[in-house]
Amino acid sequence: MDDMLHVCSRLPEYFKSHPLESPSSPTHNPYSWTYGMEGQDWIKVVGRSPEKLRKFAIGISGKWSTVPAVGIYPFDTELAPLSATCQRQNRVLVVDVGASQGGTMKEIRQAFPRLTGRIITQDLARVVDHVPAGYLPPELDIHPTVHDFWTPQPVRNAQDPLFDEKISSDDESGLADRDVVCRTILRHNVDAMGPDSRLLIAEVLVPDRVQKEELYCYWMDLTVLTFAGRERSEADWRDLFESVGLALVKVWRAEVGTQAVVEGRLRR
């Protein structure tokens, strides 16, 4: 938070020397500029400090109160009945892409004991190597693995590929445009989906009309703008999904606020 407030405080200065438009480059954005590293991906800027990177990993691996792991998508009714079938077929139940230390899957597994079946969490080696010993006990059947989501998804035909954090310009892609970045990440996972796989993305959803009752989504939009991200509306997600061969089949919304889980399946 202190990092983002510092960057946000310099936005007026940034826009005096840059186009007055939403940044879309993972290497040319307010975050990288603020720390004197314009031209470098923002995650590399964070990575200069091992301690800051460690705190960042912990911060996104635990219970993210803004998009809770449980309470929006009904894992118990939607996935638990499929658990036994997945086990018989030696099929992975859930692949959590960009899972950090696996905190979301741990919380879901503990909340829904009927949800049996193998769960794979994926992140970069610098994150996976720092999962604390004993954090994911064997009985949870959660397996942290090293995977870079700029490469093809190695787990084929999983029941549910899941993104439990931001799909935006948040890694070393070398790509220049935010939407190209998103499509690249998604296509790798779409290519690995089976006919009945579903792709879930937990996100803050921008309302179709600006309203004042729930301001958090606009704060998040401003926050991710600093590193060339943006929050999306339902229409934005539909367009993005269609561009990679997915159909947006349902938006699972929280009872209060703008948190949601967006569900996509292969277009037929």
Q: Secondary structure elements and their pairing?
A:
Elements: H1 2-9, H2 11-16, H3 30-34, H4 42-47, H5 50-61, H6 75-78, H7 80-88, E1 94-97, H8 103-111, E2 119-123, H9 125-128, E3 142-146, E4 160-163, H10 178-190, E5 198-204, H11 216-225, H12 234-243, E6 246-253, E7 259-266
Parallel strand pairs: 1-2, 1-4, 2-3, 4-5
Antiparallel strand pairs: 5-7, 6-7
Written description of the protein model:
- With 268 residues, the protein is of the alpha/beta class.
- It is built from 12 helices and 7 strands.
- The chain has helices spanning 2-9, 11-16, 30-34, 42-47, 50-61, 75-78, 80-88, 103-111, 125-128, 178-190, 216-225, 234-243; strands spanning 94-97, 119-123, 142-146, 160-163, 198-204, 246-253, 259-266.
- It has a 7-stranded mixed beta sheet.
- Strand 2 (119-123), helix 9 (125-128) and strand 3 (142-146) form a beta-alpha-beta unit.
- The protein is globular.
- The termini are far apart.
Q: What count of helical segments does DSSP give?
A: 12
Helical/strand content category: alpha/beta
Mean pLDDT: 84
Could you estimate the helical fraction of the residues in percent? Answer: 25-40%
What string, H for helix and E for strand, traces the elements in order? Answer: HHHHHHHEHEHEEHEHHEE
Distance between the termini: 43 Å
Bulk shape:
globular
Largest sheet: 7 strands, mixed
Trace the largest sheet across and list its strands: 3-2-1-4-5-7-6
Low-pLDDT segments, ≥5 res:
168-176
Strand residue content: 15-25%
Radius of gyration: 18 Å
Number-wise, the strands total 7
Protein name: O-methyltransferase C-terminal domain-containing protein
Keywords: Methyltransferase, S-adenosyl-L-methionine, Transferase
GO molecular function: O-methyltransferase activity
InterPro entries: COMT-like, COMT_C, SAM-dependent_MTases_sf
